[in-house]
Design a protein that fits this description.
This protein has 14 helices and eight strands. With 354 residues, it is an alpha/beta fold. The chain folds into two domains: 261 residues, TIM Barrel (Alpha-Beta Barrel); 79 residues, Helicase, Ruva Protein, domain 3. The chain has an eight-stranded parallel β-barrel with strand order 1-2-3-4-5-6-7-8, surrounded by seven helices. Helix 2 runs antiparallel to helix 10, helix 6 crosses helix 7 and helix 13 crosses helix 14.
Length: 354
């Protein structure tokens, strides 16, 4: 069986679930536990990556530099990873902060049809002799052929591999497996998978990705992450071991790390509720779960209707303002319908009297 590299973004994707408020002690204790488990890569930072802390998407409790420094001090045996999206992450400021903090592995992400945006960042990191991977986000929104084209661009820029990110937890297993197989054949370099659990398929999809040729898989402790959560790291490691794959991870130690995360990091365990399921069906970014619920409550509309409307508009990460627009439109439509019904009832009553 293949050697599978596991990357753990608990301290990055998990930040979404706590409004980016992970503190020093939490980062330090989990990083030490992941180090003891020999998880290959521990990814750290704001939920949206380097340079993303802002009023628009959420201000982090700690700076990028502080989060990376704290984790670096605890990661003696495994690699420190970071994630950046051009537009949030700048080359001369944010990438250099991560380089100076001792980050070993860099991932540069873009929407699945916009790999061009990663060229300067990937090229710059390769010039600094850094280990860099491309990330294609919201991959259910592109055809397999388009994904292959975008992945080949990232390869040409110097990326060592490409991670397929199921940002909405929208993939059904057969569809994902087909796309991974095509990417492996078309690119002849490392392909990875990052799953979300909206349809309760994150672990199954991760295993299917490995079966199709993926050699990198992501998972977070207890699925700690946005919305319905991510692939559960401890379950993934156990299942891959049962299937005969070598991850190099100590099973008991990763179970201990997951227990620690549940006690000390996770305010509420991720779960697949009705809104999370609809988010996956609609193919909308999982990070929108909290703002959609909040705005829907404020406007008195059903959050499921909001997600389906966002899906019809093919909204992607970074378009938070559209949530408000959609909620207002739904509220107005409900009010219009109510007034129409009221008018109809009045007409009916007047007709009966006459």
């Amino acid at each position: 069986m293949a050697q599978i590299l596991i990357s753990d973004p608990t301290l990055r994707d998990g930040n979404h679930a706590v409004q980016h408020r992970l503190n020093e002690e939490q980062i330090r204790r989990y990083a030490a536990a992941a180090n003891a488990a020999r998880v290959a890569i521990v990814e750290v930072g704001h939920g949206n990556g380097l340079g993303a802390s802002s009023l628009q998407v959420g201000e982090a409790l700690l700076s990028d530099a502080d989060m990376l420094r704290i984790a670096r001090e605890e990661l003696s045996d495994v690699k420190l990873g970071v994630f950046g999206i051009p537009g949030f992450a700048t080359m001369t400021r944010d990438l250099d902060v991560a380089i100076d903090a001792g980050a070993d592995v860099f991932r540069v992400g873009a929407h699945c049809t916009e790999a061009d945006l990663t060229e300067r960042h990937i090229t710059y990191l390769r010039e600094q002799e850094k280990d860099v991977y491309g990330v294609l986000m919201m991959c259910h929104m592109a055809t397999p052929e388009r994904l292959c084209e975008e992945a080949l661009k990232m390869k040409a820029y110097g990326a060592r591999g490409v991670i397929v990110m199921d940002s909405a937890g929208a993939f059904l297993t057969a569809d994902l497996q087909d796309r991974i197989a095509r990417l492996v054949d078309a690119t002849s370099f490392a392909i990875g998978f990052h799953g979300h659990n909206n349809l309760c398929l994150a672990v199954a999809n991760s295993v299917a990705a490995v079966d199709a040729g993926a050699t990198i898989v992501d998972g977070t402790a207890r699925g700690f992450g946005a919305g319905a959560g991510n692939t559960e790291l401890e379950v993934l490691v156990a299942v891959l071991a049962e299937l005969g794959h070598d991850t190099g991870i100590d099973l008991y130690k990763v179970l201990d790390a997951a227990d620690l995360a549940e006690r000390e990091l996770v305010q509420q365990l991720p779960s697949t509720d009705s809104v999370g399921i609809v988010s996956g069906l609609a193919g909308v970014f999982s990070g929108y779960s909290k703002p959609v619920r909040r705005i829907a409550r404020d406007f008195g509309v059903d959050p499921r209707d909001v997600f389906f409307a966002l899906g019809r508009r093919e909204v992607i990460a970074g378009q938070e303002d559209v949530i408000l627009e959609v909620a207002m439109a739904l509220r107005d439509a409900v009010e219009e319908q109510r007034l129409e019904q009221q008018d109809e009832e009045i007409r009916t009553t007047e007709g009966e009297r006459s």
